[in-house]
Amino acid sequence: MPSPALAIDIYTIFPEMFIGPFDSSIVRRAQDREMVQLRVHNIREWATDKHRTTDDTPYGGGAGMVMKAPPIVEAVEATLGLALTQTRIIILSAGGRKFTQEVAEEFVAAQRLALICGRYEGIDERVSTHLAADEISVGDFILTGGEIAAMAIVDATTRLIPGVIDAASIREESHHDSLVEYPHYTRPAEYRGLAVPEVLLTGHHANIAQWRREEAIRRTGRWRPDLLRNSGAPESKI
Questions:
Q1: Average pLDDT, the chain
Q2: How much is the pLDDT for 172?
Q3: CA neighbor of 90 nearest in space, from 16, 154, 13, 30
Q4: Which domain covers residue 182, as residue numbers?
Q5: I need a surface site. Which of 15, 67, 147, 185 has the fewest CB within 10 A?
Q6: Could you tell me if 204 and 111 lie in one domain?
Q7: Could you tell me if 79 and 38 are in contact, meaning their C-beta atoms sit under 8 angstroms apart?
């Protein structure tokens, strides 16, 4: 059996959350074609007390609980084995560096990922230190845990594997060239008084490409002006 282009191990105390999201659409097809391998591990299986406790009160006081280091570290070591040194270890954390399209491409190139889903007030810092982990945030907001963030990363990286979806589709997507994508239209040509832009009906590919570029710049200026600094687009087009 050939090795998958991308192998992802996920560590969580709520493995049941992943039942469903990975069983349909592009991610499912990529698994069926053995292009991506996904494994979900229950951290509680490496807890040693009868209640399978994975959290404790923080040293120094404070609200909330902190996920303990031993069950997480031992889960990662036991399941990855010799592959540990070839695996990018990622902790999903609100305080991590922001996940972007460029980071997704970086992760696909790594070929092996381990995603550790935080909960409560966070994870004992020694997990990150011992496993030399990267910390990633999917945005400047707080989730109740890292599971939804892990699902987003799996989806964003899987679709970049060559052959999973059409390469031309990826080249024209939002965040390519630091711009959001141009607007799309399909049949009917007119709907409730709103017509498809005339240029899209001409078949003139150069004019269509120019219109799409200008619209992408305009939409980026409206919704994501922060991206324009990296796009090289003239501000006069905004």
A1: 92
A2: 64
A3: 154
A4: 175-237
A5: 185
A6: no
A7: no
